[in-house]
Automatic annotation (TrEMBL):
Binds 2 magnesium ions per subunit. Keywords: Cytoplasm, DNA damage, DNA repair, DNA replication, DNA-binding, DNA-directed DNA polymerase, Magnesium, Metal-binding, Mutator protein, Nucleotidyltransferase, Transferase. InterPro entries: DNA/RNA_pol_sf, DNA_pol_Y-fam_lit_finger_sf, DNA_pol_Y-fam_little_finger, DNA_polymerase-Y, DNApol_IV, Rev_trsase/Diguanyl_cyclase, UmuC. Poorly processive, error-prone DNA polymerase involved in untargeted mutagenesis. Copies undamaged DNA at stalled replication forks, which arise in vivo from mismatched or misaligned primer ends. These misaligned primers can be extended by PolIV. Exhibits no 3'-5' exonuclease (proofreading) activity. May be involved in translesional synthesis, in conjunction with the beta clamp from PolIII. Mg(2+) binds at residues 9, 103. It catalyses: DNA(n) + a 2'-deoxyribonucleoside 5'-triphosphate = DNA(n+1) + diphosphate. This is DNA polymerase IV. It is found in: Cytoplasm. Transmembrane segments: none annotated. NCBIfam families: PRK02406.1 (NF002677).
Length: 406
């Protein structure tokens, strides 16, 4: 029995989420990413791609190529929320699901042809996702993951493509070798030096020649070029960590700015934990100096999702970590060892008032954005790019919370 592997990809996902929240962006060039001098493009709308802008490009270059675009820093919690919506739809509908990234999925539909028809089912599933989330999505359907992924990329934007069993080589033959997953810029340049640019030519090459030229990866590339891929679907499991990083526009030793950034990260990640009904048992703080040397420290803690437990631990780790007294380029915070659970009252420390305060704060954030309410200690230059983008109150300042748990 031939396998039926479905690959789904949310088109320009971050841009689509922003357009879902602000319809005035539809049809206009939009770029999402780090807006500082050192920022990179996370996502670019198709209108921007016509000017040569692509993900991974330096933001400074993107501004030169497409100055008329709308530039948005983005909001990780919003994108996670939309991704979760799509994930839940797929989990309800498909027998085996693999979530390979925040906007990319594989599903094994093998055996469904006898009951319904895999292509018809995939089309109806795509329609359901678009209707319920408002996000454009494309899919490819074939006998394996490689061909399905390539088919999705050929179907974009906002369309679908099926490659029938036995036609994998014919489908791949005219395409650029860059279309094969795992063929990056470096490998593509090596192919160009060999005079090879199309998949069809790789199909004609002896596998021994590929192994000689590219080592052990040569056989894998040759097999994928010939439409052969035995990679199984890895069933989706909940993530076990969340993290946030900040790269400064200018390296700094300003401890006020650094600690403000860390507080804002710790608070925002704690909100994400509570919003996802999660608790963490491990904190990691990372520091990258101006010479690109990177150091980190972690600490095991009792399960919690409370700001007033996490923020002091993050700052304490930073104090232990920051020993070189050099300019700092980047700081980061990660919560790992996640498990399902609600934040519980500690009989020796907390009161109902504290728990109710968190509930009220989170309700405001869920409705108006995760920067709509914050601690006074997280205000300032160091926190201006943490969490949500823009002002959810249309020019009104956020609610500032000052209480004894700092």
């Amino acid at each position: 029995m031939n396998r039926n592997i479905l690959h789904l990809d949310l088109d320009t996902f971050f841009v689509s989420c922003e357009r879902r929240l602000n319809s005035s962006l539809i049809g206009k060039p939009v770029i999402v990413g780090g807006t500082g001098d050192r920022g990179v493009v996370s996502a670019a709308s198709y209108e921007c791609r016509a000017f040569g802008v692509h993900s991974g490009m330096a933001m400074r270059m993107a501004r030169q190529l497409c100055p008329q675009a709308t530039y948005i820093r983005g909001n990780a919690s919003v994108y996670t929320k939309f991704s979760k919506m799509v994930t839940e739809i797929l989990q309800e509908q498909v027998p085996v699901l693999e979530k390979s990234s925040v906007d990319e999925f594989y599903a094994d539909l093998t055996g469904m042809d006898r009951f319904f028809g895999c292509y018809r089912f995939a089309k109806e599933l795509r329609t359901k996702i678009i209707k319920e989330t408002g996000l454009p999505i494309s899919f490819g359907l074939s006998v394996n993951k490689t061909v399905s992924k390539v088919a999705t990329n050929e179907a974009k934007p906002d369309s679908q493509l099926k490659v029938d069993a036995g036609f994998e080589k014919i489908f791949l033959e005219p395409l650029s070798i860059k279309k094969i997953p795992m063929v990056g810029e470096k490998t593509f340049r090596r192919f160009c030096h060999l005079g090879v640019k199309k998949i069809g030519l790789v199909q004609q090459m002896p596998v021994e020649m590929m192994v000689s030229a590219f080592g052990k990866n040569g056989r894998t590339i040759w097999e994928r070029a010939n439409g052969i891929d035995r990679t199984p679907i890895i069933q989706y499991h909940e993530r076990k960590s969340i993290s946030s990083e900040r790269t400064y526009g200018r390296d700094t030793t300003d401890l006020v700015k650094l600690k403000t950034t860390l507080r804002a990260m710790a608070e925002n990640l704690a909100f994400q934990l509570r919003a996802g009904n999660k608790l963490t048992s491990c904190i990691t703080v990372k520091v990258r100096y101006s010479d690109f040397q990177t150091y980190s420290k972690q600490l095991k803690i009792p399960y919690t999702a409370a700001d007033h437990n996490l923020i002091p631990q993050v700052l304490e780790l930073f104090e232990k970590l920051y020993q070189r007294r050099l300019l700092i380029r980047l700081v980061g915070v990660r919560y790992s060892g996640l498990t399902e659970g609600h934040y519980q009252i500690d009989l020796f420390e907390n009161t109902n008032r504290t728990v109710n305060l968190y509930k009220a704060m989170d309700a405001i954030r869920l409705r108006y954005g995760d920067r709509s309410i914050m601690r006074a200690a997280t205000l300032g230059e160091g926190s201006r790019t943490i969490g949500g983008q823009g002002n959810p109150f249309n020019g009104q300042p956020p609610i500032v919370l000052a209480h004894r748990h700092q």
